[in-house]
Design a protein that fits this description.
This protein is mostly helical. Helix content is 76%, strand content 0%.
């Protein structure tokens, strides 16, 4: 998922920098958008699954092998792929409804639905509805699951009597928590931030954080 997510945007960015060009065709833009959304959503869902895995490992250690058995892991993986495919197709279908453009320049280094709708002739209300709807479905709900998991994890860790035991338990969550903060912090800030305070430069820096750095 990470390799696909990065590969959907960075190779084109490198080529554009080397060629001093930022041109992309309509069909390639839609294709890039489709892969970007698919792997981005899969990353989001998998981060939630990983939070659930940490929750089970720390809060129910004796039942870990029974709960996170291969069958359940396969189901969670299948759910991640299915949800990502549905999200990608829904957003692509939304983009395909746009038939009129007021500009041909996208304020980003890759094609994404919100920027694509920004240059359409359709009303801003439709763009906001689409952006917030997908943000809530595929950003807010997975993030809520992660927050709930870590609430339970912290509650369990605080009950451990020794500081060494608490550190050992929480250290297994460190890398996951770092990626969650970077991915969701910059990602949701980019998509759900106020348009009044938005600048294309800040948006591109935030995009680099959640597409490359994580």
């Amino acid at each position: 998922a990470d390799i696909g997510f990065t590969s959907s945007t960075i190779p084109k960015l490198v080529v554009d920098i080397l060629a001093h060009s930022g041109i992309i065709s309509y069909m390639r833009c839609l294709t890039q958008m489709s892969f970007f959304i698919f792997f981005g959503c899969m990353d989001s869902v998998l981060l939630s699954v990983m939070a659930y895995d940490r929750f089970v490992a720390i809060c129910h250690p004796l039942h870990y092998m029974a709960i996170m058995n291969p069958h359940r892991c396969h189901l969670l993986l299948l759910m991640s792929v299915s949800v990502s495919a549905v999200d990608s197709q829904m957003q692509n279908l939304t983009a395909l409804q746009v038939t009129c453009f007021k500009d041909v320049e996208i304020a980003s280094f890759f094609c994404e639905t919100s920027k694509f709708l920004d240059i359409s002739c359709s009303e801003t209300v439709i763009k906001n509805i689409v952006t917030y709807m997908f943000g809530i479905l595929f950003g807010f709900f997975p993030m809520s699951g992660i927050i709930f998991s870590y609430y339970k994890i912290l509650s369990t860790i605080l009950k451990i009597p020794s500081s060494g035991g608490r550190y050992k338990a929480f250290s297994t969550c460190g890398s996951h928590l770092s990626v969650v903060c970077l991915f969701y912090g910059t990602g949701l800030g980019t998509y759900l931030g106020s348009s009044a305070s938005y600048s294309s430069r800040k948006g591109m820096v935030a995009s680099l954080m959640y597409t490359v750095v994580t």
